[in-house]
Amino acid sequence: MMDITIHLNDRPYRICDLGEGDCYIVVCFAPTVADLSEIYSVKYAHAPRLLVVDTSTYWRTSICNMEESDLDILASDVHLLADIYWLDEVHVDLDDEDNYLLTRLKAELQSRMTQHPDNIGKETVGIS
Length: 128
Description:
Mean pLDDT: 82
Distance between the termini: 25 Å
Strand content: 25-35%
Number of strands: 7
Order of helices and strands: EEEHEHEHEE
Number of helices: 3
Low-confidence stretches: 115-128
């Protein structure tokens, strides 16, 4: 699949959707990556479905350098993406580890979160 641009709350994000089934959403800042599937399909080969969200089309800095107010907005956008795609269960991984964003995602997704058994001990967030 080629990368597409989707607008979430009027902000553009580059999205790559690969496969079917249990879905991993990877949130990344990849302004220099021409083909998201080329990079992330290898790293997440274990994922039946991979949804890569590149934040660089709107946000001009990596996730770990974003302000908390911007991370709040990003968490809301990821939540909306999960709703739009009607995903029953989602596991979220961040290219840049950011505990604040993980905390915000947990707050956004509330009781819909689960932890994927393959990632016990790893910082992942799932929604069901």
